[in-house]
């Protein structure tokens, strides 16, 4: 006998169910999420926490005509399940399968592609005003978490929305968690107002006052506003021009559905505050939502098992250990992260040096300029940030750090392809967008040992430096325990061959070496995309007939382009083959398979060289 969920292929069918049936659907959706994520890996805690909210939204609103925009989007598995993609859930985050985030190309119910934080209110406001301009009567709903609400962009959108007469609802999903525990004054304010018996007692008292007030509308309204302003965040959001409702239990369909139905009928921008629990319904995730934020495969009946010590360190672990070691060596060092303590490897640093650790919240622009201010005062800031997230602080990187030539070290995690998170999280563009900035240098370590050494090199400079390294395990080259640096801006020849020279930037050095063995080619570990080692390039170019550049980054404007520019300056003419990420967004999937499909594994590098530089130019060893 099919489950109730198995009879639902679209929200239209969900809208025909009564509330008792909806509760059963919610239970089955939660189990579906757990069953599938345990087999594929993916975001778990956030999705378990939004089940009832998702059911209520699709039951009340006429989706996809009414637009729902999910901030970040890593809580949309229930949404996907209820919008005709339940049977494809086993392909979640797999090559050719469902994305872990909303994608407009995947479903008409994914009204806006998200993956970076704090964009939902801006997008939903744009949709609401477009509907008004076109004379269309539909709602736009932004669902945003309390962590994402700490970003400046969210408040810019609120400020804009509050003066517009439009059909917009902003839903604050208050679960007291982002990826790392949220920080900052706003989160503390919400937590204090929402906690314990104070809120319940104060709200009850407010109701009693209103019951005894004279039945004059304006007086009752003033009393209501005063009562709300004393005990809930209404004051804050109503000052932005929103009608505030809440907070309500985000797991109680009996509260959610009538509240949403009421808000649907109101005019002007509405703000609904719901309180949810990450990991809801799965006790292990409730107890440790950070560990279950993005787990790999696991047995739901057992939970996450202690991880065996990996054979190879991850680059993130190498950075985290270096940061602690350099922090012990130099008291000027401060560690800064925009809400990515766990992901960027700063947990131990925070424990050992709490006075020099700064989590600034989901605020990448602020993180960069905050670091610049510290550097002005003689400190040595290290900003631990994903390559894809530094894009959000680009103006600050240029204006506040580079123009002033301040010694800020950027530790760029997740450079290159990232696998299951796909195009939104790939660090494909950092070499092009960084190397064009004066005063800023870009290092590309080939392995774990070089990563530690180049971090030391970058930290020693009196100008800004970015060290880019990939996600996951290294190649197995154990870092040395010291803090010795490598020469600034210098590469090295790793293999000497004939006629063809492969110039490798980053970890693709190792497949390049493998390909070179079969081609009898020279291999150069360039190490720096900027400054380019032009002396070494001149020496290698003069001794070889052709050059090949290899990088796990965008070809357009990347390290290979830097080589071509240098050859032009040096007035050297050589045929150059550039290998890297093509001019398209790379989908999600296993990184090794993606690299192989792009011709960036050893076999692909060899094949590309053979195709371009045919015999008799190539001599096979």
List the helices and strands and how they pair.
Layout: H1 11-14, H2 19-40, H3 45-48, H4 51-60, E1 67-70, H5 77-85, H6 120-134, E2 140-145, H7 152-161, E3 168-174, H8 185-194, H9 196-212, H10 217-231, H11 234-239, E4 243-249, H12 253-265, E5 270-275, H13 283-287, H14 315-329, E6 333-337, H15 347-352, E7 357-359, H16 364-376, E8 380-386, H17 387-390, H18 394-402, E9 409-413, H19 430-435, E10 441-443, H20 448-460, E11 465-468, E12 492-495, E13 500-505, H21 509-519, E14 522-525, E15 528-530, H22 534-543, E16 546-554, H23 559-569, E17 576-581, H24 591-597, H25 602-612
Parallel strand pairs: 1-2, 2-3, 3-5, 4-5, 6-7, 6-8, 8-9, 9-11, 10-11, 13-14, 13-16, 16-17
Antiparallel strand pairs: 10-15, 12-14
Helix pairs in contact: 2-4, 2-5, 4-12, 6-7, 9-10, 14-20, 16-18, 21-25
């Amino acid at each position: 006998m099919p489950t109730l969920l198995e009879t639902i292929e679209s929200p239209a069918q969900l809208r025909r169910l009564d509330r008792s049936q909806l509760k059963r659907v919610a239970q089955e959706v939660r189990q579906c999420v757990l069953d599938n994520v345990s087999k594929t890996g993916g975001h778990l805690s956030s999705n378990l926490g939004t089940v009832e909210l998702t059911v209520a939204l699709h039951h009340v609103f006429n989706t996809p005509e009414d637009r729902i925009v999910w901030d970040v989007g890593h809580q949309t598995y229930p949404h996907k399940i209820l919008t005709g993609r339940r049977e494809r859930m086993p392909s979640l985050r797999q090559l050719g399968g469902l994305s872990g985030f909303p994608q407009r190309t995947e479903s008409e119910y994914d009204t806006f592609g998200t993956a970076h934080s704090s964009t939902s209110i801006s997008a939903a406001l744009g949709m609401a005003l477009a509907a008004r301009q076109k004379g269309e009567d539909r709602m736009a709903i932004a669902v945003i978490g309390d962590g994402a609400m700490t970003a400046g962009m969210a408040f810019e959108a609120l400020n804009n929305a509050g003066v517009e007469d439009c059909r917009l609802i902003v839903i604050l999903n208050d679960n007291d968690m982002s990826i790392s525990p949220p920080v900052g004054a706003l989160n503390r304010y919400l937590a204090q107002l929402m906690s314990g018996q104070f809120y319940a007692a104060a709200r009850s008292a407010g109701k009693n006052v209103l019951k005894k007030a004279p039945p004059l509308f304006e007086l009752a309204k003033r009393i209501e506003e005063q009562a709300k302003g004393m005990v809930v965040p209404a004051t804050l959001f109503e000052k932005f021009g929103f009608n505030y409702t809440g907070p309500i239990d985000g797991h109680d369909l009996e509260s959610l559905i009538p509240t949403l139905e009421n808000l649907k009928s109101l005019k002007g921008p509405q703000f609904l505050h719901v309180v949810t629990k990450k990991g809801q319904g799965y006790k292990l995730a409730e107890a440790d939502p950070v560990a279950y934020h993005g787990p790999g495969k696991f047995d739901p009946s057992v939970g996450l098992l202690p991880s065996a010590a990996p054979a190879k360190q991850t680059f993130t672990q190498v950075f985290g250990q270096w940061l602690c070691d350099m922090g012990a060596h130099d008291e000027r060092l401060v560690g800064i992260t925009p809400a990515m303590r766990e992901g960027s490897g700063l947990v131990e640093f925070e424990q050992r040096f709490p006075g020099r650790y700064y989590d600034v919240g989901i605020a990448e622009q602020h993180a960069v300029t905050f670091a610049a201010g510290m550097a002005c005062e003689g400190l040595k800031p290290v900003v631990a940030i994903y390559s894809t997230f530094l894009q959000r602080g680009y103006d600050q990187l240029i204006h506040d750090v580079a123009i002033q030539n301040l010694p800020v070290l950027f530790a760029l995690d997740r450079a290159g392809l990232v696998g299951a998170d796909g195009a939104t999280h790939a660090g494909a563009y950092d070499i092009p967008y960084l190397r064009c900035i004066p005063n800023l240098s870009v290092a590309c370590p080939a392995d774990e040992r070089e990563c530690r050494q180049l971090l030391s090199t970058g930290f020693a400079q009196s100008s800004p430096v970015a060290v880019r390294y990939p996600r996951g395990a290294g190649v197995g080259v154990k870092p040395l325990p010291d803090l010795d640096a490598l020469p600034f801006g210098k590469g090295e020849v790793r293999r000497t061959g004939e006629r063809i020279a492969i110039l490798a930037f980053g970890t693709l050095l190792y497949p390049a070496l493998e390909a070179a063995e079969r081609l009898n080619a020279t291999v150069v570990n360039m190490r720096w995309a900027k400054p380019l080692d032009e002396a070494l390039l001149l020496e290698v170019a003069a001794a070889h007939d052709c050059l090949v550049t290899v990088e796990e980054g965008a070809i357009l404007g990347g390290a290979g382009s830097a080589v071509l520019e240098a050859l032009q300056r040096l007035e050297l003419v050589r045929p150059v083959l550039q290998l890297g990420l093509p001019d398209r967004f790379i989908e999600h999937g296993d990184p090794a398979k993606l690299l192989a499909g792009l011709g960036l594994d050893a076999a692909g590098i060899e094949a590309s060289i053979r195709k371009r530089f045919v015999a008799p130019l190539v001599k096979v060893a």
